[in-house]
Amino acid sequence: MLLCGVMLAGGVTGCGKKEASLSEEKIINYDMPAEGEKIVELNIKDYGTVKIRLFAEECPKAVENFLGLVEQKYYDELIFHRVVKDFVIQGGDPKGNGTGGESMWGTGFKQEISSKLCHFEGALAYAVASDKLNNSQFYIVTGDTVTEQTFEQLKAYGKTYSDQVKQMYYEHGGQPYLDGDYTVFGQVIEGLDICKKINDVAVDSKSKPKEQVTIESMKVTEYHAQ
């Protein structure tokens, strides 16, 4: 179960030519949670804690599934089995090789793709296989520099962006190639530096860290502004 979108020198290929017109919507990735809102703390062994906001109003089933799996301790002791520099860190597979994982209901469920959420650096999304169904595997975007050339390439794939969204990609970096093909349902609000440290680990030919990066635990907690 891998991300289908990959970058190639001088071009891009994806899971299909899909419209991802982001022109008028208000982008909400970086809106902070309300006081007392549910968030998830991802505790990574030897690295620290990553705090994530979830967007239940945009992706209700995706968030329900993630919260359910967290409360079941499904993710505890699993590894990040795939790390691609300046792209993503990916985990959530009990098999640890990218071929396993299931939703809290035991079967995959349809994607919920919101035009208000983009693949900026720190975005949380579900990885899918060829069936395009969400299960347990997820990734966090560690991002790359985005330029005007990036958006010129994306026009050939039916993906057009407003000046506002382009500017946000220029400022934050990310992976606009993935927009419209995967369910973005959360955003790192604290600990992005930890994700980027993991993004620098040595990996093997299959992009698996040579030294395990382990999710010690995940828990649901409340957001409180400091």
From TrEMBL:
The lineage of its organism: Bacteria, Bacillati, Bacillota, Clostridia, Eubacteriales. Keywords: Isomerase, Rotamase. It comes from the Bacteria. This is Peptidyl-prolyl cis-trans isomerase. It catalyses: [protein]-peptidylproline (omega=180) = [protein]-peptidylproline (omega=0). Belongs to the cyclophilin-type PPIase family. Coiled coil: none annotated. InterPro entries: Cyclophilin-like_dom_sf, Cyclophilin-type_PPIase_CS, Cyclophilin-type_PPIase_dom, Cyclophilin_A-like.
